[in-house]
Amino acid sequence: MSRVLVVDDDPHLLRALRISLRAAGHDVLTAADGATALRAAAGGHPDVVVLDLGLPDLDGTEVLAGLRPWFTGPVLVLSARAESQDKVDALDAGADDYVTKPFDMAELLARLRAAVRRGSAEPGPVVVRTEHFTVDLAARQVRVGADLVRLTPTEWALLSELVRAPGRLVGQRELLQSVWGPAYEKETNYLRVYLAQLRRKLEPDPGNPRYLHTEPGMGYRFTP
Known about the structure:
Oligomer: single chain
Shape: elongated
Number of strands: 12
Strand order of the largest sheet: 2-1-3-4-5
């Protein structure tokens, strides 16, 4: 069966889920807050994540944002938030399914089985290293040598898209849709501006990039 990471700050619910999932044959990891969840996902290599949105340190959508640059397995949100917009926000942030509390355990287990069948549980690399900089996708951090580099959210989103596909040409339209959304798929000037900013921060010679390459009229390529 699958390895499941359950993230919830309610200790009684966490215990009940651990017991029920183990009884169903799953290997279970648990976390009571978002930071612990990200560390557990990076170190424990779960096949699927069951995630509460109302965590004490991070919102569940922030945990999703931390997972999705590298975790390709299914994420099932389990939350007391029943508003339609909450569900839309979670699904847009990368959740594969959404179950509201209170819930039926048999239904949750069935949804979990379905999510595992649909999803790919093979995680990508958590840390991407080059000779000059390191990208930690789980911690959402970039270092040049030992120094932490501050990136804007947009710079981070663009960089993470590229380093997740080493050596592959990532098309302009694909990048614009992933980082800015479908309404911006023709705004190629955005890519030029933000790639220039990333090169200034990460490349040893920004005018002659070694890692972040432009394929004119086509897209961009990260070469580690």
